[in-house]
Amino acid sequence: MIPRWRPWAAVDRHCRIIWALLMRELSTRYGRDNLGFLWIVAEPLLFAGSVAIMWSAIRTPYENGIPIVPFVITGYLPLILVRQTVNYSVAAVRVNASLLYHRQLTPLHMFISRFLMEFIGVSAAFVIIVIFLNIVGLMGVPRDLNLVLGGWCLLAWIAFGMALIMGALAEVFDFIERIVQIVTYIYIPFSGSFIMAATVSPGFRKVLLFLPFIHCSEMLRAGYFGEFIVTFYDPMYAAIWATGFTLLGLFLVQFVRDRVEVE
User: Do 51 and 139 form a contact (C-beta atoms < 8 A)?
Assistant: First the structure.
């Protein structure tokens, strides 16, 4: 008798593998002492809080027509999401190579678990810092929460695709690990974190809007500040780029296991 294929059993198995890897990653990176797992949220909180305080001290009260603190928070935390997701993907397989002895575990599981760790941590930090700043009167509530969530999730999707590409290439080509930090630094001025499309010249804006990250940042700020600012974005354009990055990343990940096992 031919056994029936049960898709939900396969989904459950993959979820269990990813959950186990996620717990292992948390324990390995942050340990169990002091704050332990709370560092996954505390780390981006400290980074974003420090940058917001510094900008408040050295810049004017408003940036591009937006109060300086909300402008920094809605720009810097998305930046952290992308940079940490990509940077931590480079060694995702290498540090867990011994686990590939288990045939059910794949490099894709490792990339997904690292992505989820960064996504959960930075997302929680974003929610916490926005709630706190609302309480102390430095930020208001989002004008369109769906638009904020859409921009955030689209950016996370793009970051996941980039992480797959860079992580897989780093296992095949050693030099990728050395340049990924440079790539993520170059990303900063083109991320839309500290500029807005409406504030640049029309000619440069056309060039800027070729980049998918800009659309996500513009969506997030449009959802947060509403009619108080002018924004330019196309969710479908960003989704097409995210799909392309993901498909290319999934293709490259197929070659990772053999590369690791040979070494």
Answer: no
Domain coordinates of the chain in residue numbers?
17-262
Task: Quote the Cα angle for 37-39-128, to 5°.
Answer: 105
Flag whether pLDDT at 236 surpasses 60: yes
**What residues contact residue 165 under an 8 Å CB cut-off, 6+ apart?**
245, 248, 249, 252
Q: With 50 as the cut, is the pLDDT of residue 2 above it?
A: no
DSSP line for 20-79: HHHHHHHHHHH-SSTTGGGHHHHHHHHHHHHHHHHHHHHS-SEETTEEHHHHHHHHHHHH
What whole-number distance in Å separates Cα of residue 41 and Cα of residue 67? Answer: 24
* Residues β-bridged to residue 212: none
pLDDT tens digits, one per residue of 141-173: 888 899 999 999 999 999 999 999 998 888 888
**Sorting pLDDT into bands at 50, 70 and 90, what band is 36?**
low
CB 174 within 8 A of CB 260: no
The better pLDDT of the pair 201, 42 is held by: 201
User: CB-based contacts of 245: which residues, under 8 Å, 6+ apart?
Assistant: 158, 160, 161, 162, 164, 165
